[in-house]
Amino acid sequence: MTSTYQRGLRDRLLAAPVVPAPEPWRPVFGSYTASGHAPCAAVGGLLGIGFAVHPGSGRDLVMAVSHDGHGLFDAVSGERIARDREPDFEDSTPDSAPDLTCPGLGPVAGTRVHIAGLYGGGLHLGTGDGWFLSVETPQWPEERVLLENGGQFHDKPHGEGWWHVFHSTWSTFRAAGFSPSGRTLAVATSSDLTLWIREAPAEGPR
What we know:
Elements: H1 4-15, E1 26-27, E2 41-42, E3 46-53, E4 60-66, E5 69-74, E6 80-84, E7 101-103, E8 112-114, E9 116-117, E10 132-139, E11 142-148, E12 162-167, E13 173-178, E14 184-189, E15 192-197
Antiparallel strand pairs: 1-15, 2-15, 3-4, 3-9, 4-5, 5-6, 7-8, 10-11, 11-12, 13-14, 14-15
């Protein structure tokens, strides 16, 4: 049985519409829709995602593992810069490795990338300069992704320190989190990948 307080929190989440992520975050794959949703890249049969760093430019890269193979996205431009439609069977999904990794491709070939999604694992849920992410399910099985900075959904109104930036209604949620650099935010479902990017976060006090 839920308490009055718990029901109030659930109602608050259910009432919060999807809104654009606040500045300095911007969507990678185009402009926001009229309903506030960030555009996405279609990745059919998506199983999980992981982050890597381009050895030349230092840009964040996002690796997507799906039933149709492996793909690598430039997190700044959104361009798919490498694709392997037929990876070796033993490396096709991360559950084949004890550390849930798959071999990198393109500019990160020769390395292994940790993949979070259907088979487990996780991504960073916070950055060094105060951004946090939480995934809530007030109405199962639909996950809501909340971006937070200076507030949480249980203590401030929507739009004041927390923003409902993604609502998984059409596909199964796989993973959400920040890149290790803190410059990229990713949400993956079984059918698509959504990315937001920002400039390099400022260094905190030493």
